[in-house]
Design a protein that fits this description.
This protein is α/β, with parallel strands linked by helices. The protein contains eleven helices and four strands. A four-stranded parallel beta sheet has the order 1-2-3-4, covered by helices on one side. Helix 3 links the parallel strand 2 and strand 3. The radius of gyration is 20 Å and the shape is globular.
Length: 237
């Protein structure tokens, strides 16, 4: 067995040995018998999918996981993973967790089409783009404090700030909350199963739940945050 910090290939990433160790460690931390959905957090360029799926199959047979999904996979890796699974008669990936929101729509070019083609559910992370789509400019003005983190970095770009300001102004005119609209928009997108939210207060949870009831005009939001369009048209002509 490789020691901690060992550079050997079985030490980390998606080697069969490390997948087994990671699942056992997760079960221990979670104090549960099995994991409903075990997701690969990132691609492993050095481990063949034949090895990955063999490890997953063993864990399924042992009753430790039910399904496997991916996170931050490009479209071609989703295809590669599921084609490898199909060759050995295995189910393959059932979900893809990717960065996707109104301000970051590159997933529409290939990731989401690949997920739809292979029957994966799409689970967007950072649905408010680090708070940028949650009324960042208005909240900063009301509190007297400048934005921090990803929002601050993004708003330092004058074109991004103008876009976010236009978004907030548009929703203010209709009496809508930016964060709720951003979540509601994601719920209408093809292939999306449900965005990952992280409310810290009961009020934030209630706000997220209200997004389910909103009805949106897609065209109006497209004017502020236009998507890249599907591939290959988005980059070929």
């Amino acid at each position: 067995m490789a020691a901690e910090g060992d550079p050997w290939p079985n030490y980390d990433r998606l080697s069969a040995l490390n997948i087994r160790r990671a699942v056992d460690a997760s079960l221990k931390r979670l104090q549960t018998d099995y994991i409903d959905l075990y997701q690969f957090h990132h691609v492993d360029r050095n481990t063949p999918f034949e090895e990955i799926w063999q490890a997953v199959e063993v864990l399924i047979q042992q009753g430790k996981i039910l399904y496997a999904g991916s996170s931050n996979f490009p479209g071609w890796k989703i295809a590669q993973a599921n084609e490898a699974a199909a060759r050995s008669g295995r189910l393959g990936l059932v979900s893809e967790q990717c960065l996707y929101n109104l301000a970051e729509r590159r997933a529409e070019m290939e990731i989401i089409p690949a997920a739809e083609a292979y029957g994966l559910g799409v689970i967007p992370w950072s649905p408010l783009h680090g708070g940028l789509l949650g009324g960042a400019i208005r909240k900063a003005a009301e509190s007297g404090r400048t934005a921090t983190g990803r929002s601050a970095d993004a708003l330092a770009n004058s074109s991004v700030r103008a876009q976010v300001q236009a978004y907030e102004d548009l929703l203010d005119k209709h009496g809508l909350e930016p964060g709720e609209v951003a979540l509601a928009w994601l719920l209408t997108r093809p292939g999306v199963t449900g965005p990952i939210v992280g409310p810290r207060t009961p009020e934030q949870l209630a706000s997220a739940l209200r997004a389910v009831e909103l009805e949106l005009s897609q065209e109006v939001l497209e004017e502020v945050f236009p998507g890249p369009g599907p591939a290959p048209e988005a980059f070929a002509w």
